[in-house]
Every structure is written in structure tokens, then in C-alpha cells.
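Service request form, structural biology core

Requester: graduate student, group of Dr. S.
Request type: structure prediction, single chain
Budget code: on file
Notes: please return the result as C-alpha cells.

Sequence provided:
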Amino acid sequence: MTMEDATQIDGQEDPEEQRTLDVKSSGAPPEASPHGPGATRGLLRGPGRIFFLLDRAVGRVLPESLNPLLHTGAIAIVSTTIATVTGIVLLIWYRPSVTMAWQSVAAMSEAPFTAGFIRSLHRYSSDAALAFGMIHAFRSFLEGRIGGARWLAWVTGGAMMALLWAIGWSGYWLVWDMRAQLVAVSTAKFMDVLPIFSDLVSRSFITDEGVNSLVFFVVFFFHMLVPLGLGIAAWMHINRLSRPHFLTDRPMTIWVAAYLLLLCVVYPATSAEPARMTAVARELTMDWWYLLPLVFTERLGGGALWGITLGVGVFFFSMPWWFLRLERKPAGVVASRCNECGRCFEDCPYAAIQMISRTDGNLRYRTQAFVIESKCVSCGICTGSCNSAAIGIPALDSIEQRKRINDWLDDTLAEGEEPLIGFICAESAGADLEVDPATGLSAELPGYRLLHVPCAGWVHTLMVERALRRGAAGVLVVACGPGQCLYREGEVWTGQRMAGEREPALRNEKVAPDQLLLLGFDRTRKAELIERAAAFRAKQKPPPRASRNPALGLVAATLITMAFAALTGVVSDAQYASPAVVHSELVVSFSHPGASEGGCRTLSEAELAEVPIHMRKLEECDRSRSPVRLAVWIDGDEVVRKAIPPAGIWGDSNSVALERIPVEEGSHVVKVAIGDTADPDEWAHRDEQKLDFTLEDRRVVLFDRISGFGWH
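Core staff response, request fulfilled:
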């Protein structure tokens, strides 16, 4: 049954309700709605209309179950699951080796119906996971679902996105093509900034021979094990939800499968040329979903990259506390009214209510409701669940609001007019209605007395019955659109309660079908709300709902599938150009110890006596070493002369050099000299060669004290 078609069936009024309905309160009405959008939320409402407009467009031709924009989180999880399973299957063909990785991946493409298909499915499901995860996060942000008790979902969601990206980033490394080369070099640039390595990580990626197989295996196991962390983050992400919609339903699962299948068949995954560390990557295609950071890593230094990463991370993860900070107080419980029915416990979408032992000494009931404040989002759905008014949010006390409605009805009847009462969800089409909070009057909806509520789920069925019994000509309840409830289940529970399908149920012997209008309109449908409310006031029958054309729905589903497939496919294999190369490059690198600067001295008997026997040494030597000097000449012109200090806390480790020198194209005589003593005129290691320089390849000179100079 739809929201607009809701009717009533029999129900029984709770005895406790009779004792609490007429409780009087002297509290004055608030000066403004406690559930308005606020300054920050108001700024987001404009951009947020994009999703509502898209939802409406899709909703005209397809049911809610087939609108991918309403299931982005579940689609991301399903896609991640597919990527995980296909990744495990790919181990049948993949060889995690620097020398065999590219060949094993290339061989997959030669079997398009087995290994090649699985590889394409692995790639595109990974892209879909990140793409829909980003859409899910963006929509949650625009709808303000990040503050208050929802901070944990936002933080863990961000952690999931970061882990998912890290898995994909490392996955592209394992292909070991030119894209992987850029990924490896960029990662090394990040790692070189950290003071935890005795050598520069970048030195492992300047020649093919220097690539460490152990590093490759570390990346492989990282790629395999991080999904466990992703699973933990996913569990934490939904830990505060009741009945989480973790996976897609069958119709949407079929759509996801069709979407990925279309991509795999039409546009199979490809690889770039095999990695060659001395080659300069210029133009290639890449997966922008995962490799976008290459735009920055190829153009900025390691310090700047860390600054951007930390800055973005702090900004993103701190947003719940400063950008959308919510000051609403959580729901409270009046223990003396609680009759342990447990409906609030069952209906709460955020597992914020528990049933605990009585605290008021009441021997009639064993348990009572208890609110976990850290989980409560102040939606008020529990208010609509409770017959005895034992639970509710302080900002909108139900008994106080019943008195306000009674006063509104009495005032309107005294003026000889037919009063109508409207309960307006603060996130629905009526969110922007200008309402006088004291009188409930709005020039946009004449004849109505309106009350803004945080969620339509706040409205109790007995509140509707009482308003009609008190003299109201009709009651209007406006909820969010289907699948768009800010509080997940508010509009669902409201529809079921008003239809008599869920307790507390509206009673059809108390309410005639034409006395209640329940609408589910999002914020873009304000004009339609005003039109329908006016027709309801005039007792006009609503226009018949247009039925969906199955053929049109099939065409729309096909077009939507093709659109998402095209978006994913294009972004996953779009053109990328490295920074313009105007010079060739000479790379000179070494890790070499300088000479010891100090000598040794014999310890005295007194000094030895102060040292434990097992740690005594007859001599104490100075551990520091002299810097290692480097000089480079090109065609007889000196282009580099510098001293590289030793690494290590005590200055006793190797001096590590990695010099990148621009060189004009053509043949040049290169001379390199290294001095490892304190004498500035002593160059113990020299060599020179004539090299051909091109824009497509860099030339590399390596030195170590065992094998001497190596020219590449």
C-alpha cells in the first residue's frame, strides 16, 4: 500500500493512554521550530536537490527497488564483495613476481571467456564499489547525515573509502605495467619522507634490476589482507543501525550484475606496456577512479603530498564536529509511564533504545525503555511508537504538542471555521513552508494549522484520532519521498501505522478514509504539496495515480544501465599525460659509507667497573662518519658538487644520494666522482662514459663499493 493510499483498520487503545492524554502542560510553544535546517543544512539544500530531481525522474518510470541512486551504499558493498571473490579466483592465473606478473596478466586477455572475463569483472566491480561509495558519501553529506550520533558512520565510511582506494592502488601496482611503474614511484615518493627507512625507497625503482622482489611480495600481501580491515570498518559502519540494508535486494542485484556484465563484454579490461624503470611514461590511459592521485604525485614533492593528504584527512574526518554539529538533545524516558510494550525498541532505526530492568520500583512491569544517548539522532520515531507517551524528544514533547493542537482547534472552531491539522516532516516538501510557530498558520497553506516535526514517524496515530475527535475536518501528514527518509524508516513506519499494518495502528472506525491525507513528497515537490493540500481541504478527490508503462520502464532501465556502464568505463580508461618532458634526465644514486671520523680509546679500569661485565669493551670508538662527496661533469662542465651527510641518529649510517639532473638530448660524456674521506681533494671512485640521451629514456648511474659503477 502506498503512502497516499493509506487507510485504517481496527486497533485497541492502550489503557495507559487514557491516563496520560489529558495531562496539561503550561510550557509555551517554542519561538521557532527546533528541527529547522540550520544555517549549514540550509546551504546544502540547494545542491541536495540534484539527487531528489534525479530520484523523481527515475521514479516516474521505475519502482524504488530499481533506482540505483537510492541503494548506493548497498551497491558499493555488493560490488566490493564481487571484487573480493573475483580477486581470489584470479590467483589461479596470476603470478606475484616482478618478472612474471605482467606476462601472467597479459595471458589472461588471451582467454576472454575465462580469465579475461574474471579480470574485467574484478576491475569494474572495484570501480563500481568506489564510484557508488563516493556517491553514497556525497549524498549523505548533502542530506546532513553526518553529525551528532551519526559521526561513527561518517568516520568509518571515510575509513572504508580510504581502505578501498588503497586496495585498488596496490592492485594496479601488481599488474606491473607502465601504470604500475607510476604507482610504485609515487608511493616511494611518499615513503621517502618518513624517517623510518635507512635507505631511500625510491632507489628501488630507478632500474629494472633494482626492483626488490620482496617489496613486490609485500604489496601483494597488503592487497590480499587489507580487505579484512575493510570488513571490520563495514561492520562498524552499520553497527548503530537496526535492520541495516547491507546488501541489495534481488531486483537491484540483477541490475548490478547486468551493469557489470555489459562493461565486461563491451569493454574488456586492458593493460599498458610492461614496466621499464628507465623509460619515461608520457601518454597512457589509466583508471581515474583509483589513480587520480598521480596527477599530484608526479608534480609535487613528498612533503607537499603529505601536507595535502593530512589536511584533507583532518578536514573530512572532523566534519561531524564543526561543519554539521547538531545540538539536539536525545530522547528521554518517563519511567512511570512506560508499560514495557517494547514498540519503541522495535521501531528505533538506530538501535538507540534498550529494554532494561525497572528503575521506578513499579512491580506491575519488569522492564522499561532506556535511551542510549550516544546513538540517538533525535528523530522522534519512538514518540510515534508509544501509546503511553513515556518516551520522546525534549524539543517536541508529545503531550505539550497535543495541548497546542487542542488550543489551535478550539480557536479555529470559535471563529466558525473548519480547522485542518498538518504534521510536516522537517525534511519533506513542506520543510520550507513559512509557518508561525505560535499559531501554526501559513499563508502558503490557508486553512491549516501546521506543526513541523523532525520526522513523520513522530506522529502517533492517537494524535490523529484525537485531532479529528476534537473537531478537525481533516489531518494532513507529509513525509519524505519513498526511500529518501533522513531517518531511514520514519516514512515506512508512518505509512504502515496509518494503514493499520503496524502497531500502534490507526482505527478505521475512528477515522474515515477522506479525513486523512498521507503524502510522501521530497523537498522539490513543494508546489505539488500545496496543490494536493488545497484539494484535500476542498474535499476534492486526488487525481488517479498514473501507472507505469512496463515497456517504458524496460527502456529506462536499459538506458540507466548503459549510462552507468559508460560512466564507469570511460573514467576507468581515460587518457592521462605525465608532465611535459623538455629535457632528458641523468639519475645518479648510491648508498655508501663515509670514512670513520674518530678513533678509538682504551677505557680505564674505573670506566670498565661502571659497565656490566657482559657489556664491557676494552675500547670505545667514535661511530660518526664523514659525509660522502659527489661530483658530476657533463661534457667537462661541472653540474653537481655536493656533500651528502650520513644517515642515522648517530651519524654512523650510509650516505644516500639520489640526484636527478636534466640533460639536453644527444650524446654527452658523463663523468662521476665520489669521495668518501674527509679530504675534499680526494676522489677515491671515478668513472666516465659517453651516453646517448633521449626524451623517452633516462640514463642511470649507480654505485656501490662492491661492484663499483653501473651504467644503465
